[in-house]
């Protein structure tokens, strides 16, 4: 019997109403580990080149990893992959909570979804069985209401639900998949893909907990994590959550403000993690549901998830919709010049209610605000809503209009790049997108190797696809474990920093294939780190992997993602950063005057390509590299790819 994983993958054809269980061999799991890499195996095999992202032919893969569901911190993660309606590139998104572990308990490691149901349905997985049920009565409901109805209908309060909200039903290009009404597979529009298939939800429940190969070693790893919370600084991270970095980012000039025109926000203290903790969490006393103002994912000791509630006023918000992370605080806050924490909390809740990515939503509104400031938009365009920097009421109102595709919100629901194409008038000059996806709240002008990863990342700018620049020098012992021994000075953009970018990108890619949390198993400040990740994988599975094997898993996954884009005709021309990051120096604070030098940046990009063994002219993976990673079949089975990879 397999250890850690179930050995079962469910294939769902919604058009035919067909459910088939596949049982791959052990080597399949060791090759891909799960998560993003496993999902890409099926996407590359079963999605033809050139399909529309919202067509029935776009395959959506929902995948756990080989350690998901074991009782240790950071393992309850789910990856969703499919072609993205936002970018036209591959889409990839991770989410946490309790759903991933419960999906494993239900008897399945992954669900591969194709086709389109003739009517709304939900997929019900329970104790190794699967069935499709009618969801017409759930269509149109917000995530909280739909989850309540499903728990009542199935007479089980312990089910877990991964679903789309009205934004996914309305095919908002950055609609998210939501579980627990507050955990999101947020980026790249996977909610719109699910909505296009008339699939409202995947509901899971089971008792098939994974067997662990070496329980004694596993228990020692469990104890180590709890014992070292304070020593690693993760006790503070748990207390204040990701919003704790808001003020530090501002102090170094790295807090994106006014749509990336500045790295400092005069009112940063009004939206930082300490203020959120002290004033806006639902309370430090247990409530009637025995919960604190901090929540957690399955079996995680860190408890970093925020829970907020506003009982009255224009921004009234229910606690079940969670609380904002740092990225959300920045995108709805400093990006938009908004310093009202309650407004940010409300915008976050709306995104979780309706099912949208907070990063793209907030950043798209910030882009519209800069267009307004530059005279490119007017009240005539927006239906009278004044999209002025700092207008919290307008920001919140537009968030809901986007979800409902009402008025000007219908245009912004396409994302800022496509909105700029519709509006014209030079509005493209203010975009902060990479491959059509809005940049998260870490600035390439300040973290320069991260800027290269933003550009080359197959699904667009992402802050959790590599380690951030300062970690190389700050954590030398952990960097040495992954072969990085030459830390560089701040703002360096040389060959060694490109090696740092590539190696850490491979590690984070492996983390997304194992479907574990990068806040727990990343290579720098995180709780366990990469060395303990190796130990966890071996203790659970009984394998004998080492760090080199995990890095190769990550490299394999990265090349699969790039190969998908290559067969879509997407290469080096898309590996770039927004024009304004080169042309417009930042204003104010520690990063005043910072801008990227285009010639230096292009040289660094080429250094990165050479390290990855990708073609410098086209950006496509080489055939030699694909074959060395066991991916020759990808080229052989994809005519469009074989024409560009040599």
Number of DSSP E strands: 16
**Overall mean pLDDT score?**
96
Q: Compute the number of structural domains.
A: 3
Report strand order across the widest sheet.
Answer: 2-1-6-3-4-5
Give the radius of gyration: 23 Å
CATH topology of the largest domain: Aldehyde Ferredoxin Oxidoreductase Protein, subunit A, domain 2
- What is the count of helical runs? 29
CATH structural architecture of the largest domain: Orthogonal Bundle
Helix content: 40-55%
Distance from N terminus to C terminus (CA atoms, Å) equals 41 Å
Indicate the structural class. Answer: alpha+beta
Poorly predicted runs are none
Fill in the keyword field for this structure.
646 residues; Aldehyde Ferredoxin Oxidoreductase,  A, domain 1; Aldehyde Ferredoxin Oxidoreductase Protein, subunit A, domain 2; Aldehyde Ferredoxin Oxidoreductase Protein, subunit A, domain 3; 3 domains; six-stranded mixed beta sheet; 29 helices; 16 strands
Explained architecture:
The chain is an alpha+beta fold and 646 residues long. The protein has three domains: 9-205, Aldehyde ferredoxin oxidoreductase, N-terminal domain (Aldehyde Ferredoxin Oxidoreductase,  A, domain 1), CATH 3.60.9; 234-431, Aldehyde Ferredoxin Oxidoreductase Protein, subunit A, domain 2, CATH 1.10.569.10; 448-642, Orthogonal Bundle (Aldehyde Ferredoxin Oxidoreductase Protein, subunit A, domain 3). The strands form four sheets. It has a six-stranded mixed beta sheet with strand order 2-1-6-3-4-5, with helices on both faces. It has a six-stranded mixed beta sheet with strand order 8-7-12-9-10-11. Strands 13-14 form a two-stranded antiparallel sheet. Strand 15 and strand 16 (437-438) form a beta hairpin. Helix 2 (35-46) crosses helix 21, helix 11 packs parallel to helix 13 and helix 21 crosses helix 24 (547-567). The relative contact order is 0.12.
């Amino acid at each position: 019997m397999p250890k850690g994983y179930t050995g079962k993958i469910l294939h769902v054809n919604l058009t035919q109403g067909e459910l088939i269980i596949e049982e791959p061999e052990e080597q399949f799991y060791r090759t891909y580990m799960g998560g993003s890499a496993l999902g890409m195996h099926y996407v590359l095999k079963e999605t033809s080149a050139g399909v529309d992202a919202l067509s029935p032919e776009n395959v959506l893969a929902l995948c756990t990893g080989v350690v998901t569901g074991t009782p240790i911190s950071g393992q309850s993660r789910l990856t969703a992959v499919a072609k993205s309606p936002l970018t036209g590139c591959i889409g990839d998104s991770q989410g946490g909570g309790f759903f991933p572990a419960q999906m494993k308990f239900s008897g399945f490691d992954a669900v591969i979804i194709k086709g389109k149901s003739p009517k709304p349905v939900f997929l019900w997985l329970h104790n190794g069985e699967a069935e499709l049920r009618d969801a017409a009565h759930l269509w149109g409901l917000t995530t909280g209401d739909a989850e309540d109805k499903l728990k009542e209908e199935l007479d089980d309060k312990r089910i877990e639900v991964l679903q789309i909200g009205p934004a996914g039903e309305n095919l908002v290009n950055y609609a998210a998949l939501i579980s627990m009404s507050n955990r999101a597979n947020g980026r790249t529009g996977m909610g719109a893909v699910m909505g296009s298939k008339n699939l409202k939800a995947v509901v899971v429940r089971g008792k098939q907990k994974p067997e662990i190969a070496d329980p004694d070693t596993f228990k020692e790893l469990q104890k180590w994590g709890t014992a070292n919370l304070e020593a690693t600084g993760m006790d503070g991270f748990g207390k204040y959550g990701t919003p704790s970095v808001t003020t530090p980012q501002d102090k170094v000039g790295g807090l994106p403000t006014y749509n990336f025109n500045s790295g400092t926000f005069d009112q940063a203290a009004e939206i930082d993690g300490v203020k959120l903790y002290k004033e806006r969490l639902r309370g430090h006393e247990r409530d009637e549901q025995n919960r604190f103002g901090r929540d957690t994912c399955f079996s995680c000791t860190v408890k970093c998830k925020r829970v907020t509630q506003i009982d009255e006023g224009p921004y009234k918000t229910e606690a079940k919709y969670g609380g904002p992370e740092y990225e959300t605080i920045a995108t709805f806050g400093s990006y938009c010049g908004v310093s009202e924490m309650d407004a940010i909390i409300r915008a976050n809740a709306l995104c979780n209610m309706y099912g949208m990515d907070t990063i793209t939503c907030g950043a798209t509104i910030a882009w519209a605000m800069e267009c307004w400031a530059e005279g490119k938009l007017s009240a005539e365009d927006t239906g009278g809503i004044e999209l002025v920097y700092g207008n919290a009421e307008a920001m919140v109102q537009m968030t809901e209009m986007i979800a409902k595709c009402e008025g000007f919100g219908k245009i912004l629901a396409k994302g800022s790049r496509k909105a700029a194409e519709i509006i014209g008038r030079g509005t493209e000059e203010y975009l902060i997108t990479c491959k059509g996806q809005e940049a998260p709240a870490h600035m390439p002008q300040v973290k320069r190797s991260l800027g290269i990863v933003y550009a080359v990342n197959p699904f667009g700018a992402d802050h959790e696809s590599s380690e951030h620049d300062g970690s190389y020098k700050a954590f030398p012992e952990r960097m040495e474990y992954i072969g990085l021994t030459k830390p560089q000075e701040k703002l360096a953009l040389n060959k060694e920093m490109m090696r740092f970018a590539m190696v850490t990108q491979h590690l984070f890619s492996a983390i997304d294939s194992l479907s574990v949390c990068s806040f727990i198993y990343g290579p720098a400040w995180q709780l366990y780190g990469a060395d303990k990740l190796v130990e966890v994988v071996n203790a659970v599975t009984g394998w004998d992997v080492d760090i080199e094997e995990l890095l190769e898993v990550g490299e394999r996954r990265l090349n699969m993602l790039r190969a998908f884009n290559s067969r879509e005709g997407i290469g080096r021309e898309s590996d770039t950063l927004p024009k304004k990051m080169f042309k417009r120096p930042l204003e104010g604070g520690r990063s005043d005057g910072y801008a990227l030098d285009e010639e230096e940046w292009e040289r660094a990009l080429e250094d990165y390509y050479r390290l990855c063994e990708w073609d410098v002219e086209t950006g496509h993976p080489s055939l030699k590299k694909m074959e060395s990673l066991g991916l020759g079949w990808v080229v052989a089975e994809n005519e469009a790819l074989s024409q560009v990879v040599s």
